[in-house]
Amino acid sequence: MSFLELRSVTKRYGAVAALDGVDLTVAAGSRTAVVGPSGSGKTTLLRVVAGFEAPDAGGVTLEGEVLADARGAVPAHRRGIGVVAQDGALFPHLTIAENIGFGLERGDPGRAARIAELMAMVGLETAMLRRRPDELSGGQQQRVALARALARRPRLMLLDEPFSALDTGLRASTRKAVADLLSGAGIATILVTHDQAEALSFADQVAVMREGRLSQVGTPRELYLRPRDAMIAEFLGEAIILPARIAGGWAECALGRVGVDDRELSGAAEIMLRPEQVSLTPVPEGWAADAEPTPLGEVVDTDFAGAACTVVVALRGGGATPPLLLRRSSLEIPAVGTLVRLAVAGTAHVFRG
Predict the structure, then answer these.
(1) Are strands 256-259 and 250-253 parallel, antiparallel or unpaired?
(2) Which entry of 18, 28, 231, 250 is 20 to 30 Å from 212 by CA?
(3) pLDDT in tens, 207-216
(4) DSSP state, 99?
(5) Quick one: fold of 238-351?
(6) Domain with CATH 2.40.50.140 in the chain
């Protein structure tokens, strides 16, 4: 039995279907990331699971307990689900200790010890307990919000873009700390985010939403390397999509003869490569380009961005093929106008119509 199960969940706001027959299962202790463009239904999905919204149709089950179906819904405060919002939603007039202990019984003799334990769990010093939220950094506030959500030992944790307001470096470290903490506590988690890299690094399972439906659900590696369509491919990262003719596990395309991950398909199709699969090597001066058997291109633009830089390459004889955007180390940027030899590593993914 799945830990959390959504079956044909539908939620409408007037004529708009925010959720349109969503099916999703979450394993115990796992981390699921829900990604998709704005307005795709991500936050509505989280609100239905939390109990802030009731589905118009379908059902939600947690550990075998029906939380919502056609007969009614269990109130949010009785679901045993923790929620961390984008801004943390801490009470500004309360101390950190009062924020964390908000959901704990005031007369409980173990209350102070539990608050101190939670501070340690999220990596904060107990000396901060007397402070107020505006005396903490953004990352510290998010950890306090997590501690408050953990206070009542939730069965499931819901994270609604909790790292989006943090600086890049702090965002990565906070995300890693939260992931390790929740995994160590064995708490299943659903993260809603618009950041593709965040979803891929945080989750065991990624679900891509589009217009109120789940377009594809799978492991991060599966969705990144074998997306169902071009939209999913480009949403989860930069992609090179080329028309090709397939036969016998090979594709003939603008990059030459490339192996594909589908040995059964034959005929015209679209293939996808990730930019990191395409390497480029400058052609030595005086080289006879016409005699070169591998695909050639010319560097037409570069964009320096620190460690990872973009090199734009126009294919020689590529016809209408758009220039390729390739990522390279800042130590390996060829000058604009350089003729380069292109090579593909691994196999291309084939989109089945």
Answers:
(1) antiparallel
(2) 28
(3) 999 999 999 9
(4) H
(5) OB fold (Dihydrolipoamide Acetyltransferase, E2P) (2.40.50)
(6) 238-351
